[in-house]
Amino acid sequence: MAKLYPLFVGSASFFLSYYVRLSWTILSVYMPFKPTVAQEGFAFAIFFVGYVIVQIPSGFISDRYSGGIVISLSLIGLAVSAIMSALSPDIEWEYVSSLIMGLTAGWVYPASINVMNHYYRENRSVYIGYYSIAWPLAIVLSGFMLPYLALKIGWQWGYYSSAIASIVIAIMAFSLKTEHSGYSIDPSLIKNRDVLLLSFGGFLFFISYWSLTLYAYKYFVSIGISPVISGFVFSSMAITGLFSTSLSGYIISRIGTKNAVVISLVAYGIIILAFSFIRNAVLLIVISLVMGFFRFIITPGNSGLSIEIGRERAGSVSGIANMFWQSSGIVGPIVSSALILDVGFRNLWIVLAIMVFLSTFLYRGIATSFHTTAHHGDIPQK
Predict the structure, then answer these.
(1) Looking at residue 187, what is its pLDDT?
(2) How confident is the model over 123-153, as pLDDT tens digits?
């Protein structure tokens, strides 16, 4: 059990940093001040302004200091911001809460990646797959739990429950260690070709990802699907990801990290395109299940590529790349809300699919390969 403790705490911290931001996409529907589409997009974008600001410093700091302490302090701040959101009397208050939430959540990913890199050097890609289950699990639980909490107890408890969980994991994370690289802050890493390709390829993918995540639930409700069933369709976008994420390490060990990501991106783009033409709830559930399988191979694939490119400076590389990836959360909601108002959801899904297809060309240009992965010990040698 001791061997799995860092995995559980690292994954749980990653889960909470994502789950809390997802809460807005569902709980905003139940808030008494009824934010508009534009206000929803702006609040989501403000979160990512804060998140992006801390990405590069969080990466460098997690390389130099204890990743467990970084995670603990981040989760304590996340708990405070969640309580602030629960107390929001109006949209202006929520804007401030979202900014603070982004500023605190942004430290978790680089630090938790360093924790994984420190404790799981053997079969790393397999453990990264287990770690990344947090991503689809956050979507599944938010789709099932948040509508229920909002309807039965009150929307505020969606945030209160997250705050309690954040405090618990913060206490558990404090003792986790990471390597101290001994390197000083080196912004020149941002000029590395593979870092740039990973950063901009992920930027295009995540514009599509965050836009879909933010507006999918509202889209399902808008086409006449009940709020509860819409929550189930929303969760279906990640249910199969629980399996594909856990299997991703084995898939990557067979075909390589980059190949797994590129294949999954192509399939993901095709399925987003299908959203433009399907309005039946049952069919939407089916294609959402297929989407989730491929979507959540990309997540551990991105983490794996960050480690392969960065090696002992994985925290720095993941921080730089994640700064670009999460910048999409600023751009995506604003652009998408404008597209929804001007041309509707159907054309939005088409634009997002095109962005995903374009991202595959950037990922293909990354120099790391199956042979590189095997060489660095992620795959047991026979």
Answers:
(1) 62
(2) 777 787 788 888 788 878 887 788 888 888 9
HEC string for the chain: CCCCHHHHHHHHHHHHHHHHHHHHHHHCCCCCCCCCHHHHHHHHHHHHHHHHHCHHHHHHHHHHCCHHHHHHHHHHHHHHHHHHHHCCCCHHHHHHHHHHHHHHHCCHHHHHHHHHHHHCCCCHHHHHHHHCCHHHHHHHHHHHHHHHHHHHCCCHHHHHHHHHHHHHHHHHHCCCCCCCCCCCCCHHHHHCHHHHHHHHHHHHHHHHHHHHHHHHHHHHHHCCCCHHHHHHHHHHHHHCHHHHHHHHHHHHHHHCHHHHHHHHHHHHHHHHHHCCCCCCHHHHHHHHHHHHHHHHHHHHHHHHHHHHHHHHHHHHHHHHHHHHHHHHHHHHHHHHHHHHHHHHHHHHHHHHHHHHHHHHHHHHCCCCCHHHHHHCCCCCCC
The domain ranges of the chain are 5-174+189-366
Indicate the CATH number for domain 5-174+189-366: 1.20.1250.20
